[in-house]
Structures are given as structure tokens and as C-alpha cells.
């Protein structure tokens, strides 16, 4: 069974940075794409960023220029570098990956104080 484990969330002041990590286990196939969604209280889950096996990326308009998604070599591990964080970035961040099905991590809380 495929499992996604996220890490790296926490509390940071506005303008600060955090780096989220997501590692997949339980499969030998290359998951594609992988990425991140987030959900703030009372809001719908929204796409943050996605990375495809060829290295192509896309991201939500609200994070462009501040967040960068990357992938580690040939592994099913993805990162989200978040810079210049704003209070409106506060949310639970979920890693996802597409394989035989769509898999989700348990979520990691990111809180940005003003």
C-alpha cells in the first residue's frame, strides 16, 4: 500500500521560510505527477504546486514567485520550498501523488503569524 509521509510544517513569522518534504513508500513505480495542495479553515482545498516526471512544474497564482516545488532524482520524494510566507498561506498542506490511484498524505500544518 502506498503511503505518503509529509514533514517540515510549523509556525513561522511572515516573511519567513519553510521547506516541506514528502516521501512515498510501498511502491516501486514512479509516481507521476506529485505535488501539494493546501486547505485553510473554511476554504476549499486548492492546488499549490505540481511537478511532472520530466521536470515540468505548475503552481497556483497565489504562490508563484514565492514557492518552488522540486523532486529528488529518481525517487518518489518531493519538496516544497516556501519563501516570503504570508499569513494567508496558513493552512494544512497535503502531499499527493498519482500512481495506480491517487494517494494523499496525512497533511502538515503551516501557520504564518503576522
List keywords for this structure.
mainly beta, 7-stranded mixed beta sheet, 114 residues
Task: Give a verbal description of the structure.
By secondary structure, the protein is mostly beta strands. It has strands at 3-7, 10-13, 18-25, 34-39, 46-51, 57-59, 67-71, 77-82, 91-98, 102-104, 108-113.
Low-confidence stretches: none
Number of strands: 11
| Proportion of residues in extended strands | over 45%
Mean pLDDT: 95
Rg is 13 Å
Largest sheet: 7 strands, mixed
Q: Count of helical segments?
A: 0
Query: What is the percent of helical residues?
Result: under 10%
Order of helices and strands: EEEEEEEEEEE
**Spatial shape:** globular
Q: What class, by secondary structure content?
A: mainly beta
**What is the terminal separation in angstroms?**
40 Å
Q: What topology emerges from the helices and strands here?
A:
Blueprint: E1 3-7, E2 10-13, E3 18-25, E4 34-39, E5 46-51, E6 57-59, E7 67-71, E8 77-82, E9 91-98, E10 102-104, E11 108-113
Parallel strand pairs: 2-11
Antiparallel strand pairs: 1-3, 3-8, 4-5, 4-9, 5-6, 7-8, 9-10, 9-11
Summarize the structure.
With 114 residues, the protein is mainly beta. Helices cover 0% and strands 53% of the residues. The protein has strands at residues 3-7, 10-13, 18-25, 34-39, 46-51, 57-59, 67-71, 77-82, 91-98, 102-104, 108-113.
